[in-house]
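Per-record layout

source: Actinomadura rubrisoli
name: FAD-binding oxidoreductase
length: 562
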Amino acid sequence: MSSRSLTRRSLLSRSAALAGGATAAATGLVVAADPAAANPGAPDRENATGDLIGPGDPRYPLLAKGNNQRYDSRPDYIKMIRSTRDAERALHDAHRAGKRVSVRSGAHCFADLVCNPEVAVILDFSEMTEVGYDAEKRAFFVEPGARLLNVYEALYKGWGVTIPGGICYSVGAGGHIAGGGYGLLSRAHGLVVDHLYAVEVVTIDGNGKVRTFVATKEARDPNRNLWWAHAGGGGGNFGLVTRYWFRSPNAFGSEPGDQLISPPSRVLVSAADLPWADLSKAQFTRLLKNFGAWHEKNSAPDSKYRHLSSLFNVNAKAHGSLSVFTQVDATIPGARRLLDDYLGALVEGVGVTPRPMAGPSGEIGHLPDLAEPREMPWLRATRLVGTNNPTITSPTSRAAHKSGYMRQNFTDHQIDALYRFMTRPDFHNPDTMLVLFSFGGRVNAVAPDATANAQRDSVFKMCFQTFWPNATDDAFYLDWIRDLYQDFFAESRGVPVPGGRADGCYINYADSDLADPRFNRSGIPWHTLYYKDNYPRLQQIKRQWDPGNFFRHSLSVAPAKG
């Protein structure tokens, strides 16, 4: 394996200075010694300062919104963050001025956690994009503004390694990681946070002192709970993340290529449509039952199918077809047989023949050439799937999303509800779908309390979503998706109650309706749906690291009382 040395700085030395060698200024800002003073010839990235963008700046209208155009804000300013020191100063200034902040990396937040009328300052980390290797920590570092595809490119081209993250290329690492992170490699390798070794966080205490800490997963680390909270506890809760480090649990030696998982060199990929015109209600029911039954049977941590992941888009009838994309590690023995067996099980007894994709479908672009499974390098497949559908990544769309983890197959009622809503005569939006993601495998080899991500025995994950262009249609589409969700989970009080057939919701698919009694009438608190039994521990950590609840939003962790 090839090795690559760290060229930009000694991160371990800097971390020690931040955690233990900082000095307090009278204003309450605590910063590390200036590393440029010790090495004046080095680039001064430590002190890099981003722009402050106010309403008079031509960039302001763009940056006051994220990707989802439903959510607007009129902040006093947007502060572009370029370094940890910059984040420290920005946090100090906002706190001293009494301004409420929100935190952004890739602008893909599904809800109003970043852009909302109460926010006075948006702290934007999209310019912190470095990816590299820290030889002293034996871990790879990723800054929060790095986009997922850039992370995959840098890690794989530089060292032949990766993290098992999501498929959407433009999602920012900052929020994706904090919420747990998963993708097509997760059944084989677990969640992204199962490989998280350390995190650098700018915090503010009850006296308004700004401090930066590096917290690791090491049992002896006194700040380990801060690491745990960022391993699935969600973004915008405890401080400003300026860096993540990754090292896999089975890492060994000192070579960079041995510290993190390697993706398969080649994968076998398949994509096909199942036309609505070929499906009766009975056939639709059998198809959904087949999907659920296969995942119930084949999602154990040691399943031979853990190297196979599928993304099944149950599109609205207005789209014209349902679509399925599947990827399997082509380097394992019998890869083609595993793929064929899965696709055969999916359509068994349905009486429908898969066809080449007729157009884009949800997160899957137009892939007609993959009707016949095709082998290609892993990174090429990652680029192909993650970059070629403008619907999902469009910066002009309005959208609504809801989630659910499933531990067991669908009920007849759930399939009936889905069929009725997807075939409603007055519903004509083709950009609407229930996305079913393969889950389980090595994700389920980890204990529910080992990280903040508590869902560790589900077999597939769901995302209900719809996209539309005009604000005048907001009420129609919001009513539609809310009614579908309530009906789908009617047998569990309108939400995916943990511990039964379902297992709660995914915090990275944030849905503020769950915290609103107008829409969540189940009596199950939103935090139980997202964090289950891990929420009290998150509250204790919040009390320690953000006792004044400075970092808050509609789904933020509340500090423990007392």
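summary: The mean pLDDT is 92. Residues 135-262 form a domain with the Uridine Diphospho-n-acetylenolpyruvylglucosamine Reductase; domain 3 fold (CATH 3.30.465.10).
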